[in-house]
Task: structure prediction
Amino acid sequence: MKDERYLIVVAHPDDELLGCGATISKLKRKGCYVAICVLSCESSTRTDDIFHTMLKTHEALGVDKTLTASFGCMRFKDEDHHTMVKFIEKAIKKTKPTTIITHHPCDLHNDHYITSIVCQEAARLPQRQIGYEKTLKRIMFMEVPSETDFALNHAWGKFTPNYYIGVKKSDVKKKIDLLKEYDYVVRKAPHPRSEDNINALPIVRGAESGLKRAEAFQIVFEIGEADEKD
Result:
């Protein structure tokens, strides 16, 4: 696991914590390289300083690299598609990931949907550019409470977990503690982003996979071990 390199591509600050915060905590405990690419770091609907809060949480997790863009929050549909793809391509070149994690394309939030689409397109970088170092082994979708579970767009099919990463109780606690650095992200029960639910979901996913606690992902692309050279 130590040699694995992860690039997590998200729409907004806090998405990476909600989707895989406990997993990031585990990966850094295991010595993995983790970079996070955030496409929009401002929000007209938020009063807290989400950019500096994001940097604070990334530092607490031990994130190796944070890459940020300034695409309009809740306006990704109005942004230039090619420009968004190129930005993620640059992030891939800089970080050389073996695994990319991003949003599921049927998330209710339109920014999440578009992030997934442009990320999938950018991940085809080895097929489009000659000379690019081919490090990518897998692409995975994550689940974001109150977005992925409200999957009203059935054209893409709902989030179907097929890969589980076991996490410790302390990883989940760290995830919740860092989410509380943001205003109004952690809500009162029975909201999907309540502390009760954020604690419960890893137990449910753990029960599905025979683990005590886990965060779930959907692998949509994976390359097996290379054969010996001819």
Notes: The helical segments are 15-29, 50-61, 81-95, 110-122, 125-128, 169-179, 195-209. The radius of gyration is 17 Å. Residues 15-29 form the longest helix (15 residues).
